Amino acid sequence: MMVENIVKHGKFLPEFYSERGYSPKVRFDELTIGRLYNVYGICVYKNALEYLISPSYYYSLPSWYPATLFKVIDSRLPTEWYFSEYLQSYRYMIHAIWGYKELVLDETHHNNLLEREEYALTIFATAKQKIDEEMGFPECRPSKET
Fold first, then answer.
1. What kind and span of H or E run contains 2?
2. What's the rounded Cα separation, in Å, for the pair 143 and 146?
3. Within a domain: residue 124?
4. Among the four 17, 53, 114, 115, which has the fewest Cβ within 10 Å?
5. How many domains are there within the chain?
6. Is 19 among the domain residues?
7. Which residues contact 72 (CB under 8 A, 6 or more apart)?
């Protein structure tokens, strides 16, 4: 799945994002408006959709971003993606998650990724490379529309 960044300031987020810890003053300066990004995971966090993005193609730490910062350019999903729902336990306040195998099936990977554990980042880098190759997105690039 590929998305285009259309907003990078919290003042443009819907009001309910304040309940998720995003203030109107938050800035997402690591993102570039008009740039295309591959999505490496999708989750419903506190009833809001978020995308797992790596802001730089060459190297950056993956982070979850509100989906409202982006518009979908290509809605295809990788063939090796998994899905899980957490309607009873609300693991880490996540209600549902889609993504590469370890992100969805390993209960420790999501948290280890957020904590920047080296092993989790290595798993992410491998998954990222596979997704980029399969989806035909060799790098994130400026949108043709901008």
1. strand 2-5
2. 6
3. yes
4. 115
5. 1
6. yes
7. 1, 2, 3
Strand ranges, E, within 10-93: 36-45, 48-53, 63-66, 70-74, 82-85
Burial of 96 (0-12, 13-18, 19+ CB in 10 A): middle
In a domain, 145, yes or no: no
Domain that holds residue 33: 2-135
Specify whether the CB–CB gap between 38 and 57 falls below 8 A: no
Indicate the SS3 state at residue 57. Answer: coil
Which strand (E) or helix (H) includes residue 111?
helix 109-114
Measured CA to CA, the distance from residue 52 to residue 67 in angstroms comes to: 9
| pLDDT tens over the chain, length 146 residues | 999 999 988 788 877 777 777 777 888 888 999 999 999 999 998 888 999 999 876 567 899 999 999 999 999 999 999 999 875 555 567 889 999 999 999 988 988 999 999 999 999 999 999 999 888 764 555 555 54
* Cα(84)–Cα(66) distance, integer angstroms: 19
